[in-house]
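[Solved] Which block belongs to which protein?

Original post:
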Amino acid sequence: MEAKTKVIAVAYILFVVACSSFIIYHETGDEDSSRDVVAAIARVNTDGSGIYLKSVYDPEDFYTYEDGEYTFNADMWGGRVFGTPGVPTIQHVQLQQIADSMGLKFEGLSASTVKRTDTLYYVSTVTNATAATETSSEILDGGILWEPQYSMIISNPMYQGMLLTNDMFPGHTCCVIAGSTEFMKNNPDATVAFLAAYVKAVDYVNAAKADRGSDEYGELVRICEKYTGLKESVIEDALFNVEFKFSDDNRSGSLDNLVGDIASLESDLEAAGNISVSMSSLGFDDSTEFAELLVQDSYLTNAVSGDVAKPSGKRSVTVAAINGDIHQIAIRVAQELGYFSEYNLDVTVGALGNGGAVALDILGGYSDFAFLGAPPLTINVVNGGYLSA
């Protein structure tokens, strides 16, 4: 008998997308130096991931959509193997939720696995298009991944797009900007100026996306090509699957919704075993109190209000970001268009392989600001004791 279960898209807004494939834990034994090391000071984007499927399948066999609800067919998912970018990532969690909604078990595939129709299997090392189309292609039926890797995968005749996470989990948080607390306290003018330039870049990206025939759009695509190495058709698809942000509403500097997202995320990650340190051991009553301290929007509020004092002299700023990530392209726009220079900032961006590496970079004191997924930031801050009440 055909087994189907309805999944209501809005039910998953609580979950937050991870922009990195590997989460690296960093333990510290110096309690006094790990009380207030970092803060989340701005958004970077929401949405921007997708589920891909081998071209031999018909997506309509896997799900139907009616009256705002997705209905997944367990008979088609059971016994299949899907790639995810890592067990700690929200893409992995989202795929598990789909499996749970159909009453399917969710297990990792191993060399000794004897596949059963009551189980959806995963391979948690499919972090990019190469892994999907070459390394693991023989064993995969599909997978879930973020942009621009998702668009790269479905540009290959081997695969097709099935669903965007934008459709199933609309408005989900993705990357954020983290700032070194020490740097920000010692350089409040440079911090506000940095965010003012970033806000200007996000506004540029969104205006360019709104007018594909404009010179600004052409320049945006050129910048994306330069920093991703991808062809224009893939870039355009990726750009329009991502919602670029600096705050909750892209008008004010409010990050109140991000506080709620981080609180839910911390609880989810702790329940999944990715966070091993309790909130109480860090002095917090709950995850909400933790999120209220981690997320700080005062600098962004000043930047948005226009209350921006340029540093008196040229100020050097170091930034860690993920290499080739469309989600974080606004930092490159600000560089290329000279927005940082307008505020007397000399910004150097170090491109790292994933969000875990970015987290370690800023928590280790090697960068002033960092662009990374909310999950690797949360996991490393909590497990390393970098924030406490």
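(Second protein starts here: sequence line, then its structure tokens.)
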Amino acid sequence: MELLSVLPIPLAILHAGDLRIFAINAQMAALVDRPPADAVGLPISELLPAAHPLGDPRPYHESASQDQAVDRNLVLEGVVWRWFIRPLRGDDRIVQYLLVGLLDGGRGPSEGELGRLREVNAAKTEFLNLAAHELRTPLGVIHGYGSLLSQGGLTEEHQRLAGLRIYQKARQLSRLIMDLTLIGRIDELAPGLAREPVDLAGLAQETVADVQRRYPDLAIEIDARKPAAPAEGSPYWLRLAIRELLDNAVRFRPGPTGRVDVRLDGELGFCRLTVLDDGFGIDPAEHGRLWRRFSRIETDENHHLVGMGIGLYLVREVAEAHRGRVSVVSRPGVGSEFTFELPTP
């Protein structure tokens, strides 16, 4: 405590397991708006609003479980801070505590940062309005059929049909809720995104194996011409981008059978992931709309497929956050070829 109290930056020490505050200096206590004596013993997430970046438990758990330092930029009340977390090991070499601190960046957010924050805020508002509208339809169907089942008197065949419709709409709700979760974290895709060495080939193989289990009727093959594809970035977001590309390929097709090919190759300075499918395909005139937020290209063939129109938008955002790019080649009735490129370290 003597050391923490004399250092002129906000500092605290947390228990690695439940994130209770073990020690805190006056500067950090001022940020959590609680006297130091009152803050000790409470989890840091209880002292801050849910949306406060310091209250998010994930970076702390990441540092503790992986025994690795965490460094990020964040903006608090118009000031850019360098937020750091350092794991502290005990005598048994297990991480027992976390040292948390903030370094003043000495400047407010740039116009570019402010513009991005405004864009993210507008996107969330737009998404919530759209989600409220989209959630009504499956909820209405589930409510209606559930009411019929609760009243009894249905024939066995009608009970089966009601159960099937409830199951179908519940799957649609699951899809919408997943989209809600993703859009809630989209502001993480900023220039300060935490990066680490990753193997794009390994991520692709894991994701393909998972999709193969979920869609056994589809022929899903991966051709890893590069046995390893080193990159630098966020494993979570890169895995998500690959999953969204595969999900797009398996969903937008006329039936449960068909073929999806995943190819991984590259040249000097970058690696390339390509997903090819034999699905509905997309009119070339609509290709520009594919990457827009909440844009859904509806046709007679795909109008029944639910979604919020953020999958490919997120793929593009992930690529750009990693200094990469995306592209598409597609024709109706033939299929699509989506390409995701990243620079190599």
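Accepted answer:
You had them paired correctly. Confirming on the second one: The chain has three domains: 2-104, 111-186, 194-343.
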